[in-house]
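Q: Structure for this?
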Amino acid sequence: MKSTLAGQQICFYGAGSIAEAIVRGILDKHIADPEQITMMNRNNQERLSLLEQKYHVHTTNDVLTKERVLREASIIVLAMKPKDAAEALEGLRSLLHPQQLIISVIAGLSVGTMQELLAATNPIVRTMPNTSSTIGLGATGMCFSTNVNAIQQQIALAMFEAIGVVSVVEEAQMDMVTGVSGSGPAYVYLMMESMIEAGIKGGLSEEQAKNLTVQTILGAASMVQLTGENPAELRRKVTSPGGTTQAAIETLQANQFTEVMIQAVHRAAARAGEMGALIGRETHH
Ligand SMILES: NC(=O)C1=CN([C@@H]2O[C@H](COP(=O)(O)OP(=O)(O)OC[C@H]3O[C@@H](n4cnc5c(N)ncnc54)[C@H](OP(=O)(O)O)[C@@H]3O)[C@@H](O)[C@H]2O)C=CC1
Ligand SMILES: O=C(O)[C@@H]1CCC=N1
């Protein structure tokens, strides 16, 4: 079957961790060929050489070539840090054609601010993926500007469904998606770090503590997915009355585990909003 991305020239404007995660994911799933992809950054040539070597994609650091690639791309993926976004988007003004599809992964940056910075009304897909996209297990939130047509929606969905699951949401929910799943892997990693540390402090070897922790997280997530049962129900099955799990959960709840988790997710979402507002203020015109 012909891929939805067939014939598209995709330019990754920003070549950091999330750009690499997406590229690796879509190449592994064979929904695009390396020849369709160009990755560019500001000036880190070493990074580009590594990406070229690993994925056989085109890369460029040369100003004129970058401009040409940006002009000729049918899809431009904006993947720079929020602090670099205003300048980069303003730099695109003179290069953009109205039919080019813009896909942003930048936290907090609204469709409205992008249109203002680009001084254009190109179709825009605002996304929030996460780093697990690298292995095809990403979780992406996505919303569309009103002028993204059905084919362009399919293109964006195909790209991100190739690297995990996608939730289409209203733009107002994008910052909350960032708090839950964009930053989410880091919360789980912190929990893993803590469980490993606890194991080591209690006498397990580092390897034992790590193996047991990794498999526990993997197994728990897979149980939710494969049994279709709710986390609360599955938790109940682990928790024997008066047993060890109950003792642990009581310790977590005595320290406001649930409240702290909610606070953390909401703080991340609020931070996304703050970053977006900051980018908006950097508009030079
Ligand atoms: N990391 C994550 O888990 C996620 C990140 N995001 C979003 O993705 C974006 C990128 O994050 P991440 O990949 O972690 O960041 P990185 O720091 O790893 O990468 C940023 C990239 O942007 C490039 N860049 C900066 N300014 C420009 C410019 N003017 N022109 C071209 N390239 C430029 C940098 O190039 P150079 O090295 O040469 O400076 C670098 O390649 C952020 O906006 C973030 O909010 C979204 C979801 C998850
Ligand atoms: O920490 C950040 O700002 C980015 C956005 C989501 C994950 N990483």
